[in-house]
Amino acid sequence: MKIAVIPARGGSKRIPRKNIKEFCGKPMIAYSIEAALQSGCFDKVIVSTDDTEIAEVARRYGAEVPFIRPAELSNDYTGTIPVIRHAVEWCMQQGVDPQLVCCLYATAPFVTPKYLQQGLQQIIEQDADYAFTVTSYAFPIQRAIKISPQLGIEMFDSKNFNTRSQDLEEAWHDAGQFYWGKAEAWLSEKIIFGPESTPVILPRHRVQDIDTFEDWDRAEWLFKAMQV
């Protein structure tokens, strides 16, 4: 069995109620739920939340909310892996035997069924522990600079000052949309950023972190532009 687990706690600090705040006409979480359902990848689409209002919105858009996440897994310091592990263990206690579990973030309006399907194909074909979305940095990280408290400039690694950008190795970062994983990988809390994982490569225009109100505005502009 293949299940999607969408973590959506109610205590977002930087953007209050971010998971269900309206984004281009719909609650933010609706985009993740709809992409999961439209992908045809999943036997179940579950939202893991500690919040009754989020649960109500999730059900309205077609997800299941079969449990309320315990408070000890809903604070500011709880990582993703323990939350998904809890959902997998809950399913197993109910007699459900998930083999592949996809953690799909509630704040990923650019996620598409196509890439969820690609992630599923890759984790199966490569027999990987995880398959997750990545994208490339727009600028070589080897030439990054820092600003001192006195407004001075310093390179993180000055030996790359005279190296042409095209001669530097391309670097990638987590795109923060979804993580397909084997159930046993979640249960054993295996590291995600490791050699047993496979990357689902996204174009940069489909990636936008949404942690601040400035991020939110940029994401809406980008989303609307892509609809045109």
UniProtKB/TrEMBL annotation:
Molecular-function GO terms, alphabetical: nucleotidyltransferase activity
Protein keywords: Nucleotidyltransferase, Transferase
Record-linked InterPro entries: CMP-NeuNAc_synthase (IPR050793), Cytidylyl_trans (IPR003329), Nucleotide-diphossugar_trans (IPR029044), PseF (IPR020039)
Family matches, as Gene3D superfamilies: Spore Coat Polysaccharide Biosynthesis Protein SpsA, Chain A (3.90.550.10)
Signal peptide: none
Top-level division of the source organism's lineage: Bacteria
Keyword Oxidoreductase: no
EC number: 2.7.7.81
PANTHER family in the cross-refs: HAD SUPERFAMILY MEMBERS CMAS AND KDSC, N-ACYLNEURAMINATE CYTIDYLYLTRANSFERASE-RELATED
Annotated protein name in UniProt: Pseudaminic acid cytidylyltransferase
Species of origin: Psychrobacter namhaensis
